[in-house]
Structure formats: structure tokens, C-alpha cells
Amino acid sequence: MIHMKKILGLILSLFFTVSIFAQDAIKKVIVEPYYVSDEFDATDTTGGYLEPGSKTYRIYIQMKPGCMLTKLYGDNRHALKFSSTANFFNNLDRGKTFAKDINKSNYKNNTVALDTWLTIGETTKKATNTYFGIIKSQDMDGSFIGGVNNDGGSAGITNGLLTNNNPKAGIPLTTEDGMDTLVNVPTNWSDNGFTDLISGVDSSIFGSIKIGNSFTSNKAYLQNSGVMGVNPDSNQVLVAQLTTRGDISFELNVEIKDNNGTIIKYVAKGIDTLNEKVCTYLKYPQECGCKDPNFLEYRSIYACDIMDSCKTRIVFGCMDKNACNYDPHANYNVQSLCCYPGLCADRDISLVCPSLGENATKILLYPNPATTEVTFQISSADDNETKYVVFNSYGKEEFENTLHLLPGTNTQDLQLTILSPGLYLVRFYTGSSVICKSFMKN
User: Fold this and answer.
1) DSSP E strands, 248-372
2) What is the DSSP letter of 352?
3) What is the pLDDT of residues 125-181, one digit of tens each?
4) At 394, which CATH number?
């Protein structure tokens, strides 16, 4: 029988843990299928050959409302990584390393809109309007790319390029382009590790000079004063667009300014410190498994569920076989629930362990406090051997002894001259029971 206060304490403890987790600035990372290229897109040679069936993905970081994304980076402990099982596509005509540098009018040219790039929210600007990435399902202002808004590429395709309505990419680009304006435009842009400081040439997978399928850096970063999502409630900020025929993977590290103006670092993997938090959502493909904390298979690192991965429901209880309330059905030990004669966390031992009954061994200890010696009075129903161990207040064993008990009352004196003044615990092992007593030496 478990005391109701203990159960309530466990529930409150679990609720508090979940509540703390919910306060993290990052909620999740979203990989949005943005477009699937077709044979018409492949006709263009001005922007470079785009293989039919290439997929364009957009990566968003979703934060708590009010938080701002300020930096995407790699450092000595946490590399920034992007890779694919095939080469990334970079437009040779007017593609850029960073989306903010693409002129809005250039999105009408060939396959510029499918270029591979990085950003912190911003996708383009023209005159007084600055555009930012937004998931297509939340974009309500139409599209300025693809179809009639496209020049048809080098082959002059009549109805324009980027018209494929492949359902794997969701809403067609000709309906919604995943871009909308935002009033609060970021400032103080800076970057490192992508372009040559002198020539300005980008030879990474985000540039058009060198074709490749991976990018790893411990020094690269892109940062600005901070960006919120176009939709303040969902607060999703675009950080990358990747176009490739292959399967993508990445590891991100970001800095986020929370509602109090505090900068928090989140990394894809590593060790928690005072300055950073490991966020498994920042790694893709995400590790999946059982996300239900009511099952033994649950792991907090899982970012997504796998059906039927939760198999063993947790049964709380005492799994110490020396305890009088040992529960053979329990699979999750809660030591504070375990009861021993004389040690039952302020609970009624007769209710928790009624099996002890009248025939159980009973132990008295006196005087308490003691000065020179303490006496154990042990009542036993039959012959048995009892071992006792004395521990100091730090849990260090001072000495032990074994007694042969006879039916009835047995006494044993313990000399205290070798002990320093303080609190001591005596643990008696008799039969299948463990009985704990404490005394103070003056």
C-alpha cells in the first residue's frame, strides 16, 4: 500500500519535469518539402542542369512566441553540418550563398528560386519590402515565382518553369511561394567561413564554383540582430534551402534570444553546460522511438514517435528484495517507497507491511542519546543469526558484528569509546528483514 502523499509527490515531480522542458526556447525543427523538379526545369542551361526529380527542402526552426533566432554556427566543439547522398544544386546564374542577397526580380529567372542557400529568416528584398520564409501552408499572399512569373529559362518554356504539382511537395509554388513580408527587419548581418575574405568567392556547397554533397565547419557562422517568424504564434524562422536528388542530413547549432533578452545556445549534440543545451531536434534525420514517459522504452532524446515502440508500461514500486514491501510486479524502483522495520518514511509499518505480524523480530535501542555504551534489546520468536552494521552520518561503516539470537529477549551492549560524538545508524539483518535504528553519541 503506497501512501497517497508519496504518489502525489511523484506526480508533481513528473509534472514539474515536463513543465521545465516545455519552457525551452526551441519547440522543434521542421523540414518542409518545398518543390520537386521535372523535365521542364531540366531544360534550362543558364542556371545549370537540374536533374528531374531533385527535391528542394526548407528547414525552419520553431521557437516559443517572443523568442528570436540570432545565429547559425559551428564551433570547436560542435560542427555545423549539411550533407546529401547526391550533390547539391546551386544556380549558376544568379544564385547566392545567403538568400538575403538575392534580388526579388531575379526569382523570375530560370531556376534561381531553387538555389541552395542559408539564411536567418530573410529570403529577398525589393525597395521598402523585405521578404521572409514562411511554411507554404501558412502563406496567404500568393506567389511571385514559377509559372507566369517565370521567364521559362534558356529553352523559353511557354508556361514558365517551376510548375510541377507533385503532391510530395505540398502546395504548388505557383500558388504559394513560402515568402511574405515582415516589418521588423534584422540588422548587423555578419558571416564567416563560407566565402573567401579577399575574392568573396564561395567554394562551399552553397556556392556555384565547386559541386559537392557535404559541408562541415567548426568556424562558420551567419548572424544578425535577431528574427522572429512571419507568424508570431508559430514563430518559425527559415534557416536553409537545400536542393538535391539525394537524401539530406544535417546538424545545426543556433543562438536564440529569449523573451528576457538572454542569449541561449542550442546544439545538435554534446554535453549540457551552463551556456548551451543539447537539442535533438537540431539533428536530422531525427532519432525516433518511444516518447511516452509511462513506458520503460521512453527516452527524452527521441524527437519523433515510432509506432509500437512503447512496449513495457512502467510499474512503480519497491524492488529491494530485502524490503518488507518488495513488489515482484514492479519494473521501476522507487527507493523511497521501500519499507523496513524501523525505517518506513513516516508511514505506519503495520499498514505497509502487515505480513510482519506478531512473530516479527522487534528491536529496542537505549539509552538514546548515549555516552559510553548503548544496549540493543532484541525480541525474537525463534533461533536465528542477526548481523548488525554501524554507520556514521556520512554513510561510512564503523564496524559490524553477528549475534546468535535465542527465542525470547536478547540483549547486547555496544561500547562507544571508539566512536566520535555524532549521529549513527545501526542496520540489523535478521532473516529476510532489515531493521534500521539510529542513536546519538554525546
Assistant:
1) 248-251, 253-257, 263-267, 276-278, 283-284, 288-289, 304-305, 316-317, 332-333, 362-366
2) H
3) 888 899 999 999 999 999 999 999 999 999 999 999 999 999 999 999 999 999 999
4) 2.60.40.2550
Rg (alpha carbons) of the chain, rounded to whole number: 34
pLDDT digits (tens, 9 = 90+) for 407-441: 888 888 889 988 888 888 888 887 666 777 888 88
Do 250 and 114 have their domain in common?
A: yes
Compute CA distances 141 → 30, 123, 145, 174, 176, whole Å: 21, 15, 12, 12, 7
Neighbouring residues of 296: CB distance < 8 A, sequence distance ≥ 6 = 311, 312, 313, 314, 331, 332
* Final residue of a structural domain among 222, 247, 278: 278
Ordered DSSP codes for 149-162: GS--TTTT-TT-S-
Beta carbons of 159 and 176 less than 8 angstroms apart? no
How far is CA 121 from its chain centroid? 23
CA–CA dist 335, 313 (Å, integer):
19
Residue 337 forms part of a structural domain: no
Q: Is 223 helix (H, G, I), strand (E, B) or coil?
A: strand
Domain carrying residue 398: 358-441
| Cell numbers standing for residue 293 | 514517459
Number of domains, the chain: 2
Predicted TM-score of the model (pTM): 0.68
